[in-house]
Amino acid sequence: MAAWTVPSHWRPDPHIEEGFEMRTLRLSLAGTVILALVGGLGGAVVAQDEEAGAADRPMPQRGIAYGDADPEMQVIHAYGLEPREDPRPAVLLVHGGALVIGSPDDYASLVPFFLDRGYVTFNAGYRLYDPDTGANPWPAQLDDVQQAVRWVRAHADEFNVDPDRICAVGHSSGGQLVGLLGTTDATGDDDLELDGISSRVDCVVSLAGDADLLVPYDHPEYDFTELTGMILGASLDDRPDLWKAASPAHNVDDMTVPFLIIHGAHDAFTPVEMARSLVDKLTEAERDVVYAEYGNQSHEGVLYHKPAWGLVDAFLSSHLHP
Description:
With 322 residues, the chain is of the alpha/beta class. It contains eight helices and nine strands. It has helices spanning 31-38, 111-115, 140-154, 173-183, 225-232, 240-245, 272-284, 306-320, and strands spanning 22-28, 61-65, 75-79, 88-94, 120-124, 161-171, 203-207, 259-264, 289-294. The chain has a nine-stranded mixed β-sheet with strand order 1-9-8-7-6-4-5-3-2, with helices on both faces. Strand 8 (259-264), helix 7 and strand 9 (289-294) form a beta-alpha-beta unit. The longest helix is centred in the middle third of the chain and has 15 residues, at 140-154. The protein is globular.
């Protein structure tokens, strides 16, 4: 395939849109409990300073290597809280960037939101695909985040974490990865420390996630079909099975964990139909799902939309009980 480069217009400056319209809100099963909590949480706001209010917290442990294939990319930044008798729930953040760009630092401003609510927070990096050399093809990215979850569970005592209360939160391609952490599982590993530990998290928050790669892109400037084929190693026509295996929507089963899915109807990067497809699959399988689609939000906009973070707060409270 032809060489591919990151377009200059890929990542617009993030912004907060003050007005909003919640176009749809769909819930099923236990999700009705979450709806009752949302009313008092609409003012939740994402902290902008990673160090804000951190004076009474343990120092973060940055750049912990959890894998040896590429210790510079396979890293976790760990943000602990003061230990207590009952272990705390945890959140694992997974950055986006179409699996070719990005780093854990992209999520640094989100960390205080979770710490302030009592969640030990882990911010994970993973191997990125290199379009120039073909290094790190799929499923390296999924393998890495699965290993990151298992590493967190293996080190739960060290961080005063309950290994059975871990939520994965991701945006864009990070939403794709966390979606697969909630719909698939990996337990085998050459590393005896991780062997037998599950990679399936206990709940998922997907923000503008690439949930169904079979959905066609509807914006000519942001068509990632060719890049996806390069990462997966085959076109959709040649290997639809590979594209399905990399799509959370096509991996839903009776073991799938609760999902919160948030998407903007004005998302030019990731078609909103991807989110709708995953919601439909979860609903058909009678899995717990909360879906919010904001009528005036863009791909990056949902990351900075206050009402969306009210839903995140309520969802985590309902499933992780901090």
